[in-house]
Amino acid sequence: MGFRINHLHLKTPDPRTTADFYVEFAGAKIVSERAGADGRKTFRLDLHGVPLNITDYLPDQKLEQHYGLEHVAIDAENFAAEVAKIKAAGIKILEERVLPDGRQVCFFEGPQGVRLEFLEMR
Question: CA distances (Å), 23 to each of 8, 17, 58, 72, 74, in order?
């Protein structure tokens, strides 16, 4: 099995203020700042080696979104096999979709309702 943490994802109504908080009070560094077609800013931070995405709600995500720690994303080297494994185990699948860059993703529910995401590793 080949896995690695892709990112932790925080969703907030004010991504800039949240990113600035993590920079000022937690020692994070802003790695990238982007604006979507709608003008909304998204940030990728390095939180002492842990990639941290900070966004508002994502317009193309159909799965219900909430503010706070949204999910833990894990790159899966053998994406299809890992998704098949969790499906065979009866783990609740929340959403499957393809990202604009062509990678497949699968959101699923972990213990105590924690959301996890497998991303196709490239």
Answer: 16, 10, 23, 20, 24
| pTM recorded for the entire structure | 0.73
Please say whether the beta carbons of 117 and 107 come within 8 A. Answer: yes
Its CATH architecture, for the domain 3-120, is Roll (3.10)
**pLDDT of the residue at 111:** 73
The distance in angstroms from the start CA to the end CA of the chain is 15
Residues 74, 117 contacting (CB under 8 angstroms) = yes
- pLDDT digits over 30-43, tens only? 999 999 878 889 99
> CA dihedral in degrees (77, 113, 109, 71; nearest 10)?
-40
Q: What is the DSSP string of 78-94?
A: THHHHHHHHHHTTPPEE
Using the structure block, give the residue that is written with the tokens 């098949």.
84
| CA distance to 1, 47, 78, per residue, from 56 (Å) | 32, 19, 30
